[in-house]
Amino acid sequence: MAIRVLTEQNCGNAPRHEISRRLAVALASIDATELESLLSADAEWNVLGEVPCNGIPAILEHAASTSAAIELRVVSVITHGREASIECAVRYDDGHIVNFCHVLRFANTAKTAAITKIRTYQASSVP
């Protein structure tokens, strides 16, 4: 099932803005191909309060452990240098909503640099 993505237009001058959005969508929709294109092979994902995931297979496994997401609303994206953050709300097929912020670290400052670290802060809402 495809996920509905709601987002505001951006200026188009910040490549990491789009990369951050693509990552949030890929994690919510468990898109292995997209995640492999965005993440370094040894990427780390730390959802605060949970056991960290190391490497793409572990990240995919963790992403797949949630309900199916049906909608992702992008609230804010901030990028600078090797870092970015994206604030979103995701709605799942069982009705609950999770508000979260991914804080991202890229391998370097190149526009095509892979994401090496993700730190996620999240809070669930009751349907």
Description:
There is one protein chain. Helices cover 24% and strands 45% of the residues. It is of the alpha/beta class and 127 residues long.
| Gyration radius from CA atoms, angstroms | 14 Å
| Rounded average pLDDT | 92
Strand content: 35-45%
- Strand order, biggest sheet? 1-4-5-6-7-2-3
Primary descriptors:
127 residues; alpha/beta; 7 strands; globular
Offer a quick outline of the entry.
With 127 residues, the protein is of the alpha/beta class.
Give the topology.
Blueprint: E1 4-6, H1 15-29, H2 32-38, E2 39-47, E3 53-54, H3 56-64, E4 69-80, E5 83-92, E6 97-106, E7 115-125
Parallel strand pairs: 1-4, 2-7
Antiparallel strand pairs: 2-3, 4-5, 5-6, 6-7
